[in-house]
Amino acid sequence: MASFIDNLDAHRTEIFDSLPYYDNDLEQNQILRGKVERELAREPKPAQTLHPRVPPPIELFKDKPGLAAELARVEAHQLLAPLDTIRYQLPAPTSTPGTDEEWQQALKNAQSQLEHQRIRHTNLALLQTYGPNAWRVHNYLLEATAKQAETALEELKQRTTDINRERKNSQTRIGNQLTSLEKKWTELISSILQIEMANVALDAEVDRLNKKEAELASM
């Protein structure tokens, strides 16, 4: 799992993130929020496409059609087909007293049933001898796999928490810088307006003095 995360870090590209921890204008201004929601409602719905980093879906049992059909049956919530019990029956010849061919078929069926029971008995004996240890080993492997998955899940959860904490701290720091720059920009705009107003007043005063000078010169 660590190698998978390292590979993600190696292929990480620059991502321009928004500032959801800083931009809260929509939460503070409900009128603005309503306007944004109405504008978004008029926009066409984007295509539901996955992120490019999401791997394609895995096709299970590609080379095993029997298992694929069984998986499809389970996903469709269909009942399992009932067992064929005819093969376990010992039908006698239908006619009386029965032909040689019918008795031969019945005898072969009985021999098959006897061989099937013998194999079942052998399998049960093998299961009683080696089954418990095999199941213990299997359960041990399952527990080890489950622990690995739980460990990987905890690592991802911790990594997600760290990333969110890093994003919040970074956005809070950048937000404070933006607030300071916005305040400075407002002060500069105010100073420029004051200077422009002073220039207008000085231009008016110059025009008044020029007119007064012209009047004095004409006398």
What does the model show?
This protein is mainly α. Helices cover 71% and strands 0% of the residues. The protein contains five helices and no strands. The chain has helices spanning 2-10, 25-28, 30-42, 65-75, 100-218. The chain starts with a helix and ends with a helix. The mean pLDDT is 85.
* Helical stretch tally: 5
Shape by Cα distribution:
rod-shaped
Helix content: over 70%
- Please state the structural category: mainly alpha
**How many beta-strand runs?**
0
Provide the succession of SSEs. Answer: HHHHH
Give a quick account of the main beta sheet: strands, pairing sense, barrel closure: none
Fraction in beta strands: under 5%
User: Mean pLDDT, nearest integer?
Assistant: 85
Q: State Rg.
A: 42 Å
Low-confidence stretches: none
**What is the straight-line distance between the termini?**
98 Å
Fold topology:
Layout: H1 2-10, H2 25-28, H3 30-42, H4 65-75, H5 100-218
List keywords for this structure.
0% strand; 219 residues; rod-shaped
